[in-house]
Design brief:
Length: about 350
């Protein structure tokens, strides 16, 4: 059996960490009946450089035909003034593929406790997931306007947009600790009032799960004060963007956290949560963990390969526990050193 994986290495450290993830995948499946067909395409700044477009037509066409998509990283100062920036290309890709839900797991490995800015007794054992609505809300709402003395954006949601992402959150919670926290600002925003009403209706479909509501400002404080209290958090686009980034500091580094974006079609996109880090690109010091774990997440969520996914995750954390750490984690291992160590663990 063969699976087509579209590879969007992107910019900065993207190609380096993508190479690590592909090496790991090839190792795991070297004696398997399954084969991955890795098909590389230009995207982001690389797309602008080669095709004058962050999302070239051929890249989008390939993504629509893929079994899954792996994305490295995009962006950099070089393209900040482009007519269509790399970030706009990513928004367009999400919209074109109808990737309405973003999954951001946050966990704190014992190997990384010393890096967390939060006290050990508070953060140890943290295991939460932020479910973010990805193609609605203020990032996509119309009309929008930027003038010399006035600007506005439109925050817009409808019932079906809310239902589908909230339902996804409950389905995930059923396989975890059966607790869903819905985050909104229903004391102020009309969209949040609708969000809360629809969430209450969807919750009736999942009597085995507990639903809790919280305003976004209170949730932001609670993530720092008591992160172990959370299981599955579901929220709208803007709040999800902010809260998932806040949660990502709990393990002390962006370099170990993966993410997934899913839609109603068959293709999903997997990517690290960090940026392209152009200042360290090409130096063989980038941390590949989040890219490797994004590939692991792909195995689990797109292909139901739980055993292989767990094998990769276990190898990554054992390597870190043994002190093989890249520079961002306080170690001296290069990108290739760390990747080789993970591959050795997979033998």
């Amino acid at each position: 059996m063969k699976k087509k994986i579209v590879v969007l290495a992107g910019d900065g450290i993207g190609p380096e960490i993508m190479n690590s993830a592909i090496q790991v995948l090839k190792k795991v499946f070297e004696n398997s009946y399954l084969r991955f067909d890795f098909e590389e395409h230009f995207f982001g700044g690389a797309g602008i450089d080669v095709k004058n477009d962050p999302l070239p037509e051929e890249t989008l066409a390939a993504c629509k035909q893929a079994d899954a998509i792996l994305l490295g990283a995009i962006g950099g100062h070089k393209w900040e003034t482009a007519v269509r920036t790399p970030e706009k290309g990513l928004l367009d890709l999400r919209k074109a593929l109808n990737l309405f839900v973003n999954v951001r797991p946050t966990f704190v490995s014992d190997a990384l406790l010393h890096l967390s800015p939060i006290k050990k007794e508070i953060v140890q054992g943290t295991d939460l997931v932020v479910i973010r609505e990805l193609i609605g809300g203020i990032y996509f709402g119309e009309p929008r306007y930027l003038g010399a003395e006035e600007a506005y954006d439109t925050n817009r949601y409808n019932v079906e947009e809310i239902k589908r992402v909230v339902r996804y959150a409950f389905e995930m919670a059923q396989n975890r600790r059966q607790h869903v926290l819905s985050v909104d600002k229903a004391n102020v925003l009309a969209t949040s009032k609708l969000w809360r009403k629809v969430t209450e209706e969807v919750a009736k479909e999942f009597p085995d799960c507990k639903l809790e509501h919280q305003y976004v400002d209170a949730a932001a404080m609670r993530i720092i004060q008591n992160p172990k209290a959370f299981d599955v958090i579901v929220t709208e686009n803007l709040f999800g963007d902010i809260l998932s980034d806040e949660a990502s500091v709990l393990p002390g580094t962006l370099g170990v956290l993966p993410s997934a974006s899913h839609g109603q079609e068959n293709v999903s996109l997997y990517e690290p949560i960090h940026g392209s880090a152009p200042d360290v690109a090409g130096k063989n010091i980038a941390n590949p963990v989040s890219m490797i774990l994004s590939a692991s997440l792909m195995l689990r969520e797109s292909f139901d390969m739980y055993e292989e996914s767990q094998k990769i995750e276990t190898a990554c954390f054992k390597v870190m526990e043994e002190g093989v750490l890249t520079k961002d984690l306080g170690g001296t291992a290069s990108t290739t050193d760390f990747t080789a160590a993970v591959i050795t663990k997979l033998n």
